[in-house]
Amino acid sequence: MFHASARALRYLGACGGCATIAVCMLYVANSAAQSSKQGQPQSGTSSNSSNASPIYGVTIPPGYRDWKVIAVGQLVTDKVDQLRAQLGNEIAVKAYTEGTRPFPDGAIIVALHWNRVSSEDNNRVLASAFPGAQSFVVGSRVNMQVMVKDSKKYAATGGWGFGDFKDGKPGDEALHKTCFPCHEPAKDRDFVFTHYAP
Predict the structure, then answer these.
(1) Gap between the terminal Cα atoms of the chain
(2) Over 90: is that where the pLDDT of 14 sits?
(3) pTM for this entry
(4) What is the pLDDT of residues 16-38, one digit of tens each?
(5) How confident is the model at residue 49, as a pLDDT?
(6) Could you tell me which residues come within 8 angstroms of residue 173 by beta carbon, excluding any fewer than 6 positions away?
């Protein structure tokens, strides 16, 4: 009886070990597949999503906050005072660093816009070391804009599809009709205003 029980325990232990290995292999395989999927360039487009921009079908690309910074800037007019940052996926950043124009298909550029506000906290900290210094930081979000390069799909608009989003929702068709005309003055730079920051 003891030998049968010991044999049964060894058998169950072996089965448990095999099951554990199988589960681990499945987990690793799923993780690898997911990582591979995440590493692929995201199109940023969808033809049947309610979160897609009208006219172009551009959506907010997943994972864009982890992309590399292309440049930062400030826009001031009589109506706005904004801080802006442009991020790019791997294809866009590679094109920037290598000076490739026109941008290759698959390039995506995301522009994030915030209202600029004074930082009283920073000003207090800086006061002793930099008397009179003024610090400004990002305030409330204004919008985000997305450009997706697909030379065939967007041939009529210089190869670029556009999306303008506020609080994650795309603007209306009238707004999106202004996107390409706004970028036409930058035709000699493949319709992209932003320069790569040194």
Answers:
(1) 78
(2) no
(3) 0.76
(4) 444 444 434 433 334 333 333 33
(5) 63
(6) 54, 55
Residue among 173, 174, 164 at smallest CA distance from 143: 164
Among candidates 52, 34, 39, 48, which has minimal Cα distance to 148? 52
- Residue 135 makes CB contacts below 8 A (sequence gap 6+) with 118, 119, 122, 123, 126
What sign results for the dihedral spanned by CA atoms 74, 176, 171, 44? negative
| Residue 88 Cα to chain centre, angstroms | 7
Tokens 């997305």 -> residue: 146
Any idea which of 10-14, 46-50, 118-122 has the lowest mean pLDDT? Answer: 10-14
Per DSSP, what are the bridge partners of residue 12? none
Reduced 3-state DSSP string for 75-97: EECCCCEEEEEEEECHHHHHHHH
Q: Please state the three-class secondary structure of the chain as a single string.
A: CHHHHHHHHHHHHHHHHHHHHHHHHHHHHHHHHHHHHHHCCCCCECCCCCCCCCCCCECCCCCHHHCEEEEEEEEECCCCEEEEEEEECHHHHHHHHHCCCCCCCCCEEEEEEEEEEECHHHHHHHCCCCCCCCCEEEEEEEEEEEEEECCCCCHHHCCEEEEEEECCEECCHHHHCCHHHHHHHHHHHCCCCCCCCC
What is the structure's pLDDT at 46? 58
Q: Which two tokens stand for residue 37?
A: 């999927």
